Amino acid sequence: MSSMARLAAAATAAGVVAAAIALPAVGGTGAVFVSASEELGIKPEELKEPPLAERTTVLDAEGNPIAWFYEEYRENVKLDQMADIMKTAIISIEDYRFYEHGAIDIEGTMRALAKNLATGRVAQGGSSITQQYVKQVLLNSATTEKEKNAALEASYGRKLKELRYAMAVEEKYTKDQILEKYLNIAYFGAGAYGVEAAAKRFFGVTASELSLPQAATLAGAVQDPNATDPNLSKDHRDRLLNRRNVVLDRMAELKKITPEQAAEAKKTKLGFKGTPIPGGCGSSDYPYFCMYVRNEVLSNPAFGKTKTAREQFLNRGGLNIQTTLDPKMQKAAEQAIKKHVFAGDNPVASEALVEPGTGAIKAMAASREYGTNKRKKEMSYNVVADAVHGGGVGFQAGSTFKTFTLLTALKEGMKINDGLSVGSGYRAPYYSSFKNCKGENIGDPTHTVTNDEGGGGFKTLATGTWESVNTFFVALEQKVGLCDTVKTAKSLGIKRSDGLPLQEYETFTLGINEMDPVTVANAYAAIGARGKYCRPMVITKITDRDGKVTNYQPKCKQAIDPGVADAAADILSGVFTKGTMSGVGGIGRPAAGKTGTTDAQATAWFAGFTPDLAGAVSIGDPRGSQNYKLNNITIGGQYYSSVFGSSIPGPIWKDTMINALKGVPATDFHPVDTARFGGCGSSCRPAPPERDQEEPTGPLDEADVTTVLE
After folding, report:
1. To 10 degrees, what angle do helices 84-94 and 129-141 make?
2. How far is residue 590 CA from its own chain's centroid?
3. Which pLDDT tens digit goes with each residue over 395-451?
C-alpha cells in the first residue's frame, strides 16, 4: 500500500469524516489523492434519493387549509427563495470552500486529520456539505432501526460508501443544486426539517426573510440540533445563542460580514418564537372531519396496497388533498349543536351532513371539543364516525331504523295506505316467526315489545311511520321478513359503528344496533337521491408534490327502486306535519325524516333529508348510554324529564338545515307513483291528534298484548 493510501486509512481510523482518497482532484495535492483512489479502485456510486418527507395539506371544498399531516415538518423551497445571508452563513460555518472543492474539501480533511491525530480523538470533522447531504439522504431513506444505525455507524466501510456517493452527487448536480438540497433536508431542531420550516418555527418568517442573526442561528443549529433545540430548555437556548455567535465570528473572520456587523448581531437576543407547527387533527378547526380524512387514507387500499405504504403516502408525500367539507354547512351544524347542547354536558350531540347523489360528507360536528383533557370533557375519538374512521362503538339508532322496514314493505308491494292492526304490546307468536339471514329461528315469544310513541289500532304505512309505533313496525317486519329488512338496510350502507356484524333480531327495526351519524345520514341521503346509494366520500382531488392531479369520483349504485324511494320520502315528509316532529315543524322546503328514541331514552336521534342535503343527529352519554340515560336531565341549560328524538336531535337538525341550505334553491321530491303505491301519503291523510311532546303511552295492559297481522 502506498504512503498516501496508508495516510488515508489512518485518517479514517482516526475518525475523520472521509478518507480524502475518494475526491476528484483539486489543485496540485489532489492528484496524489486521485492516484490513491485509483489504487484502491474507488469509483463514484449512484445515490438513490427518494423524495424527502414533506408535509401534506388538507383543504376544504373551497381550497382553504384545514389540517396538515407529516412525518417530518418540512416545506421544500428553491434556492432563490432562501435569503442570501442564510446561504452565506451555512457555507461559512459548515464548508467555507464549498464552491471550490470536489466531493470533499481536501484541505479541510487534512486539517481535521492533523487535529485529530494531535489530540488522539475526533476533535474536528472534515465533512463537506455534499457529504453531509449524502449522510442525511441515507438517514432519511432508512425505514428500520437497523438501517438508521447503519447510516450512522462509525466504520471505514460506511465512510467509503458515503465518499462514493458524494463523488456521484458532485457529478450529477451543480453546487447550487447540492446546497439547495442540503438546506431542504437538514434538521434544525424543534421539529423543523429544512430551512423554510425552521425559519417559520424559530422566528415566524420565511427563509427568504431571514436576517443576519437569524440566519447565523439556523446555521449554528445544524451541527447538533438536539443539543441546541430551543424548544426544550433555557440551557438549550443558551447553547444555541453561543453557537450563533460562533457562526457570526466565523463569518467575520472570512470577511463575509464586517466585525461591526458581527458585533451588532451578537447584541440581539436569540428571538426564538416557537411558532406552533401546523398540526394534525388535534389542532384543526374541524377535528372530526380531519380524523375521517386521515383514517380514510390509512384504511383505503386505493391510497396504497399496505398500511405502511398508505402512511408514507399521507405523512411524507407532500400532497394537497381537496375534500368535500363545506365551511358554511359546517358552521351551520356547529352553531345548531352549540345552541341546544353545551360542551360541559354529560351527553354528547353529534351530526353529519351528506349530499344525496354523491355521498359527499359536507360537515361533521359535535358538542364537545376533540382532545384528551377529561376535565374539559374533550372527546378522544371521532364520535361522528365509525371505528374505521377513528370512531367508537356508536349509539343505538332507535326508530330511525323503522325506515328500512318501511322501504322493504314498499319494495314488496305494499301501498301507502296498506296497514296492520296492532295492540300496545307485541310478542312473537312462535320462534320461527322471525328468521335471520342465516335462516335461524330467532323469534322470542317471551319478549314483549311496547310502544313509547303512538298507540295500538289499525296503522297504515303512513300513520304507523308518523306516530312511530313500535308494535306496528315489529309486526310489519314479521310480515315482510327480518332478513329482507336487514338486506334493505345493508344496501344503503348500514353497518355497525364498531365493525361487528349487525345484530339480526326481531327488534332490528327498533334500532338495537349501534350506529354513527355519518352512516345513518348517508343511508337517508340515498332515499333523497331516489334510491341511489353512494359510498361516503371526503376526498375529491389529490395533487402530489410534482403537480400530478388525481380526481376521485363518487362510487354509487341504484340500491332502491326510485319509485319505492319516492313513496318512502312522501311518507317520511309527513313526520314534520302529522307525526313526531309536528311540534318542531319543518324547514320551509320539502323535507323528510324520522325521529329515533331507544328503549327508556338511552339515546335519541333524528335523521332527515331533502333532495339536496341529508343529515343525522345523535345524542347519548359516552360514559355508557345504557347506564346514563336521558331522563331527568339538564342539557343545554334546559331540563328534560325524558329526551326523545324530537326533543333535541330534531331541533338541531332543523336549525342546521335552515342555515346550511340558505341560498340554495329548494328542490321538490319526485311525485309518488299513485298507480303503483295508491293513496297520497302525507299530502292527504288526516292528521292525528296533536300532542305537546312525544310522551310514551301508559303502562302495558295485559289485555293489549296481542299480535294482529293482516
Report:
1. 100
2. 33
3. 999 999 999 999 999 999 999 999 999 998 999 999 999 999 999 999 999 999 998
> What is the band of 118 on the pLDDT scale with cuts at 50, 70, 90?
low
Distance CA 19, CA 39 (A): 14
**What is the DSSP code string of 433-454?**
G-B-TT--B---TT-EEE-SSS
Q: How far is CA 664 from CA 534, 590, 661, in A?
A: 22, 13, 5
Rounded Cα distance between 195 and 215, Å, is: 9
Nearest one of 577, 603, 541 to 684, comparing CA atoms: 577
What lies within 8 Å, CB to CB, of 222 at 6+ separation is 90, 94, 186, 187, 188
Q: 561-573, pLDDT tens digit by residue?
A: 999 999 999 999 9
What ranges make up the beta strands (E) of 71-143?
A: 73-74
Residues 6+ apart with CB under 8 A from 554: 357, 358, 359, 360, 534, 535, 537
Q: Give every CB contact of residue 391 below 8 A, 6+ residues apart in sequence.
A: 381, 382, 383, 384, 385, 497, 516
CATH number of residue 251's parent domain: 1.10.3810.10
**Which value, to the nearest 10 degrees, does the dihedral of the CA atoms of residues 560, 564, 567, 569 take?**
0
Could you give the residue ranges of the DSSP H alpha helices within 614-689? 649-660, 674-677
Q: What is the pLDDT of residues 151-166, one digit of tens each?
A: 777 667 777 888 889 9
Cβ atoms 350, 383 nearer than 8 A: yes
Measured between alpha carbons, how far is 702 from 260 in angstroms, rounded to an integer? 100
199-230 tens-digit pLDDT: 999 999 999 999 999 999 999 999 999 999 99
Task: Give the dihedral sign, CA 244/250/251/257.
Answer: positive
Q: Take residue 132 and report the three cell numbers written for it.
A: 453531509
- For 111, 112, 295, 375, the CA distances from 245, given in Å and listed in that order, are 23, 22, 46, 45
DSSP per residue over 292-308, as a string? HHHHHHHH-GGG-SSHH
Report the candidate in 277, 317, 222, 245 with the shortest Cα–Cα distance to residue 542.
317
Contact 575, 453 (CB under 8 A): no
CA distance 30 to 70: 43
Range of the domain at 94: 74-267
Give the count of alpha carbons within 13 A of 171, CB side only: 14
In the structure grid, which three cell numbers stand for residue 645, read together?
328524538
The amino acid present at 700, given as its one-letter code, is L
CA distances from 551 to 188, 322, 363, 543 (A): 36, 9, 20, 9
Residue 416 falls inside a structural domain: no
Distance CA 19, CA 11 (A): 6
- Nearest-Å Rg of the Cα atoms of the chain is 34
Beta strands in 508-643 (DSSP E): 514-515, 532-534, 539-543, 549-551, 556-558, 592-597, 604-609, 614-620, 631-635, 638-642
For residues 699, 702, 707, 710, the Cα torsion angle rounded to the nearest 10 degrees is -80
Give the total number of structural domains in the chain. 1
Instruction: Using alpha carbons, select from 122, 131, 119 the residue that is nearest to residue 95.
Output: 131
How much is the pTM?
0.80
The Cα 182–Cα 193 span in angstroms is: 11
Alpha helices in 391-440 (DSSP H): 402-411
Helix (H) or strand (E) holding 199: helix 195-203
Domain annotation covers residue 147: yes
Residue 547 resides in a domain: no
Amino acid 699 reads: P
52 lies in a domain?
A: no
Tell me the backbone φ, ψ of residue 366, rounded to 5 degrees: -145, 160
DSSP 344: T
273, 203 Cβ separation under 8 angstroms? yes
Residues in the chain: 710
The beta strand positions in 101-216, using DSSP E, are 187-189, 192-193
